[in-house]
Design a protein that fits this description.
By secondary structure, the protein is mostly helical. 74% of the residues lie in helices and 0% in strands.
Length: 194
């Protein structure tokens, strides 16, 4: 069975997510995103008539959905397996990019918006973080953690992993991921009942 070929729109969104993960949103133009995706600039504006913010919003949602699918599948085996898969996913991105790429969701979250209004990409990033936290919290609750403790630990996991990815890029090492993995796993095991 062959994998379906991504559409031009999907290639542009994936390329934008990759560019944002490497350079941030403000340092990436829509022209560069189109070039990186090997797509004509005109087709980029065709698919994203609202411009860069629309494309960035779609890139954040794409990353969120892709990560959530992986996390959801791994969490079927429990919260420790979910944590390990979450960490492995980001390790692969950091290592495969030679420590040049991180998380586009985080990249969009930390940049100063151009206006007082909350940009759609920032709102999408908040939704993505909430979804990841919800998936983790549900798994923790399903394995005996109390509701509030599960929610707080899920937030800690997402925050720790996102921060650790940034540290790996800065240090050009996966050691922060290893250290974080060990401590988060210990917290999960101390929290769950099975």
């Amino acid at each position: 069975m062959t994998k379906p070929t991504p559409t031009a729109r999907e290639r542009i969104v994936a390329g934008a997510a990759d560019m944002i993960s490497r350079r941030g949103l403000n340092a990436t133009s829509i022209r560069e995103m189109a070039k990186h995706a090997r797509a004509p600039l005109g087709s980029t504006y065709h698919y994203f008539p609202e411009g860069k913010q629309q494309l960035a919003t779609e890139a954040v949602r794409y990353t969120g959905a892709w990560t959530a699918r992986s996390l959801r599948k791994a969490l079927e085996a429990g919260p420790v397996a979910g944590l390990q898969a979450f960490l492995a996913l980001w390790r692969k991105i950091v290592v495969d990019s030679d420590f040049r790429a991180g998380c586009p969701v985080l990249a969009v979250s930390i940049e100063e918006p151009a206006t007082e209004e909350t940009p759609a990409a920032l709102a999408a990033a908040a939704d993505v973080f909430t979804e990841w936290e919800s998936l983790l919290a549900a798994s923790l609750r399903g394995h005996g953690a109390e509701r509030e403790q599960a929610a707080q630990l899920a937030t800690l996991i997402v925050a720790a992993v996102e921060g650790t990815v940034a540290m790996c890029r800065a240090k050009r090492s996966t050691q922060p991921l290893d250290d974080t993995a060990e401590q988060l796993q210990a917290l999960i095991l101390a929290t769950i009942k099975d």
